[in-house]
UniProtKB/TrEMBL annotation:
Species: Dovyalis caffra
A cellular component annotation (GO) from this entry: nucleus
MF annotations from Gene Ontology: DNA-binding transcription factor activity
Highest classification ranks of the organism: Eukaryota, Viridiplantae, Streptophyta, Embryophyta, Tracheophyta
Positions of the K-box domain: 9-61
Protein name in UniProt: K-box domain-containing protein
Pfam families: K-box (PF01486)
Amino acid sequence: MVQIQPPSLKSMPRHLMGDAVSNLSVKELKQLENRLERGITRIRSKKEIELENESVCLRTKVLKKTKSSYA
């Protein structure tokens, strides 16, 4: 099975994708781990905001449909 990645992930260094980490020192691994954790935190925050925005839009659509049904 071929795994397709978004273009932005193709340009990421291999160690950020979990590959080619065997040559990294403990210090470099810790730095990489910290960098990845910060990235995950930003991604989760962005995802939460996007989901909340989508939820608001969907609630608005439902309210409009409900109001138009009673009109």
